[in-house]
Amino acid sequence: MKANVVNFSLGVISFLLLVSCGEKKRELNFPETNLETTAFIPKPLQVTATKDGFALDQFTAISTAKNNSEFEAVASFLAEKIKGKTNLNIPVNSTIENKGGTIYFKHSTDENLNTKEAYRLAISKDSVILSANTSEGAFRGVQTFRQLIPEKANDTLASYPIWTLPTGTIVDRPIYEYRGAMLDVARHFFSVQDVKKYIDLLAYYKYNVLHLHLSDDQGWRIEIKSWPKLTEIGGSTEVGGGPGGFYTQDDYKEIVSYAAKHYMTIVPEIDMPGHTNAASVSYPILNGNGKTPKLYTGMRVGFSTLDTRKDTVYQFIDDVVREISAITPGPYFHIGGDESDVTKKEDYLYFVKRVEQIVQKHNKRLIGWDEVGQADLSATSISQFWRHADFVKQAIDKKMKVIMSPANKAYLDMKYDSLSKHGLKWAGFIPVDAGYQWHPEDYEDIPKESILGIEAPLWSETITNSNELEYLAFPRAIGYAELGWTPKENRNWEDYKIRLANQSAYLERMKVNYYNSPLIDWKKNDFGIEKLKDL
Length: 535
Ligand code: ACM
Description:
Layout: H1 2-21, E1 46-56, E2 61-64, H2 69-86, E3 102-107, E4 119-123, E5 127-132, H3 135-148, E6 163-172, E7 178-184, H4 192-204, E8 209-213, E9 215-216, E10 219-220, H5 229-232, H6 249-261, E11 265-269, H7 277-282, H8 311-326, E12 332-334, H9 345-361, E13 365-369, E14 382-385, H10 389-397, E15 401-404, H11 407-410, H12 432-436, E16 451-458, H13 466-473, H14 476-485, H15 493-501, H16 504-509
Parallel strand pairs: 2-3, 3-5, 7-8, 7-16, 8-11, 12-13, 13-14, 14-15, 15-16
Antiparallel strand pairs: 1-6, 4-5, 4-6, 9-10
Helix pairs in contact: 2-3, 4-6, 8-9
């Protein structure tokens, strides 16, 4: 009885306040929220809930530090994404007085934020403060913010729609500096538009690298102005005999710049000395396997090689590395180096060492598939573990760093199971749980301090378009994002699979053709915030 009287009085007082002040956010009675149960992926380092609500609505504004165009660009990116999800127009650094809550972007040198991707989100009833030392950190924090916005607004709290964000604090940073995905655009070609959509999706899960496999036996996919037949002839085919295609240098620059806007680095790969049939058909002088090269549209590997003892070949490689490096702002150049089965071992070792010098001359850091660990490389070069732990160990002995992509755990082109519509199975099936339940930090005794990061490669022998790409990449790519970001002790399949189930709303809004794995109890149209589900 007494409680009812108190409630009634509070109700009258709130009503009077509303009438006297207009509908201000601080009078809104949010249902209890819980920041700690929000379905974030990757899971942030520390989350503390204060169980109140911040109203994202037509009165919200964004404010950034003055004279910081990078922070301002990240803030505008957030405003654009809020618009896409809610249709709200959120002003950035508007001079008009703000009547609602403010989202502040703050440059901070706080010691918790002293790594380049670290950020802090402090969400209270009246404001959100996103602090970071770099715009890159702010950008990662923006992805967390996006995951906080419920799919649906509440229409009963006020006379206008309100998207309620749970309050509390998040302090976050990744465990690895390299969190990549690879797309093979050589076996089948993917358009600039397809690549941009993949970047959108990867950036949402805090990936920071997209590695493009730009050449293989079946196709050469990047314009090289000094060797024009590479694309004219070598770009004209793909697996299965389709029309192939290639990126002009302007197309490639467009991809690089779109990636940069998403704080992602493009790693270009020209695979050599094997996987070079398309190059050798274009310029037979490069060929080292003793046969007349012909255009190839099959899936077999290991039959091609460059002639490793010809100066013209190294002139060719110098031109290719020079032209691509000039339009690649990132620090890496990937030389492939895998499955050179018809290159003699001594020729292979000589070749890889010589190509390292070319890559370094063009101010790039070499990455190669794990076979390159056999060559006499310098400590700045990087081995990408896909299959051979012994070669990776040889690289580690040379103090090289390692990118973890073991095929039986991290290859996105492996089928989920025997019923998968696309994919291969030579490294085994990788169902969604197996893709998540392994630890790059203690795999095959690779020391943690040697690991630069993790990458999920997607080879395209069996996929021809974005729909098929998405079927193999999603949802598994989401799990690899967490393996690269979240400390091992905070990763747990039972907890992850509930958070993954909540990604369906985002994936469906983005029209992603994700594989509906029966291991996941997919939520349809969830709010993304457990406690707000009943609204
Ligand atoms: C590879 O899968 N051949 C690196």
